[in-house]
Amino acid sequence: MTLEEIIIKGGVTIVPLLVLSIISIATILERIWFWSTVLLREKLLLKRILDAANLNWDLVAKIAQKAKNHPLGNFVYSPLQLSNPHPEVFHLALEAAADDELAKMRKGEKILEAIIALSPLLGLFGTVWGLIKALSSIRISDLGTASTSGVTLGIGESLISTAVGLLVAIVSLSFYRIFQSFWVSQVRIFRKTGSQLEVLYRQQWFEAEAMNLNQPAVNRQPAVNLNLDIDQEKFSFNPKISSNPDQE
């Protein structure tokens, strides 16, 4: 069956279903392009950032600035735009950047959700409408005669809209779940990267404070106890810092 035959025989809902299928395909292709660019560069970028963080934070800022078109680069560069921020400010900047980047990664999900919900309903409506038209021409006296053969053909054609609606919904749902799995993996990566960067920054910041007070930095590092409370929907750090008052 050709596309032209589907449009002719599909009924009143076939055109809206074709429009939804075009929107779904466009959204899926855009998301495939986005995730391919993100995932292909992420591993190397993450390694460079963490290696630089152990050496020089100015180098981290330069690497992140060059990768600002990548979500991970934006996430790391956001707190480094500040001038020597306090660890608590560094933490808040990381948290805000993570929320922003993770929200951007969910672009297009609402469109796919709407298509997944609407397509089967439109298909079912088209089938019901076709059945009403086919059965309305039947008379009781015609049952069992050759005149009812056209009704059978009409019922078969009315099911086309249901098949198209289910096909659009199944394809959209499949890619929607794939994109959801990518997003969940990004939540874990942002959580792990944020924790590592915050620990390294706190260590460097307290060492610098100790040096400014002309005190040995080796024995003056406070104990850092990070209590992370992060779920998949909201990236949140809850650091708790305990230090010896004598070290201040």
Tell me the β content. under 5%
Using the alpha-carbon principal axes, give the shape.
rod-shaped
Provide the spatial order of strands within the biggest beta sheet: 1-2
By oligomeric state, this entry counts as single chain
SS summary, helix count: 8
- Helix vs. strand class: mainly alpha
Order of helices and strands: HHHHHHHHEE
Q: In angstroms, what is the radius of gyration?
A: 29 Å
Main beta-sheet strand count, sense and barrel state: 2 strands, antiparallel
Helix proportion: over 70%
Mean pLDDT, as a whole number? 79
How far is the N terminus from the C terminus? Answer: 80 Å
Structure description:
With 248 residues, this protein is mainly alpha-helical. The chain has one domain (3-137, 146-194). The chain is 71% helix and 2% strand. The chain contains eight helices and two strands; from the N terminus they run ααααααααββ. It has helices at 3-9, 14-53, 57-66, 71-80, 87-105, 109-136, 149-158, 160-212, and strands at 224-226, 239-241. It has a two-stranded antiparallel ribbon. Helix 2 crosses helix 4 and helix 2 runs antiparallel to helix 6. The longest helix is centred in the last third of the chain and has 53 residues, at 160-212. The protein is rod-shaped and about 100 Å long. The termini are far apart. Residues 216-248 have low confidence and may be disordered.
Briefly say what this structure is.
By secondary structure, the chain is mainly alpha-helical. The protein has helices at residues 3-9, 14-53, 57-66, 71-80, 87-105, 109-136, 149-158, 160-212, and strands at residues 224-226, 239-241.
